[in-house]
Amino acid sequence: AGAAESGISPISMACFDPIKATSRCNHDPARASRPFDRDRDGFVMGEGGAVLLLEELESARARGANIYCEVAGFANRGNAFHMTGLRPDGVEMAEAVVDALRQGGLEPADIDYINAHGSGTKQNDRHETAAFKLSLGERAYQIPVSSIK
């Protein structure tokens, strides 16, 4: 599956800037877009594309492929708390994590890495952090978390 997004436009900037979701440090890339950092101040608008190739485990093994991960479970939830806001307790996201673990027959100890949304906004970082702690318990403090943004 592949996708691309070209979201930079005057309208998108006019929507995100007033709610202080975008970083004010665009002039200093080392300080811009710092998810989960104490000094974070928002995200940097960007555009990109990606392709994801999924293959049946048996097929990958049969051809001797390097297997980097396995999708063992999937879940999602909605959060209609506010038009632009998230509940800080992360309950819905935590429910999705617990459901995905259950579907995959996994425990928090089986998780080695979290690729978070990581928008770099204080609101989202609080939400995601709370969800990880709620769903993974003490293991949440041991799992590396980053974002591809």
Reported CATH architecture? 3-Layer(aba) Sandwich
CATH class placement: Alpha Beta
User: What series of H and E elements makes up the topology?
Assistant: EHEHHEHE
Mean pLDDT: 91
Between the first and last Cα atoms, what is the distance in angstroms? Answer: 19 Å
Structural write-up:
Helix content is 28%, strand content 9%. With 149 residues, it is of the alpha+beta class. It has four helices and four strands; from the N terminus they run βαβααβαβ. It is globular. It has one domain: Peroxisomal Thiolase, Chain A, domain 1 (3-Layer(aba) Sandwich).
Summary, kept brief:
The chain is α+β, with helices and mostly antiparallel strands and 149 residues long. The protein has 4 helices and 4 strands; from the N terminus they run βαβααβαβ. The chain is globular.
Helix-strand layout with pairing:
Blueprint: E1 2-6, H1 10-16, E2 47-51, H2 57-62, H3 91-104, E3 114-115, H4 122-136, E4 145-146
Parallel strand pairs: 3-4
Antiparallel strand pairs: 1-2
Helix pairs in contact: 3-4
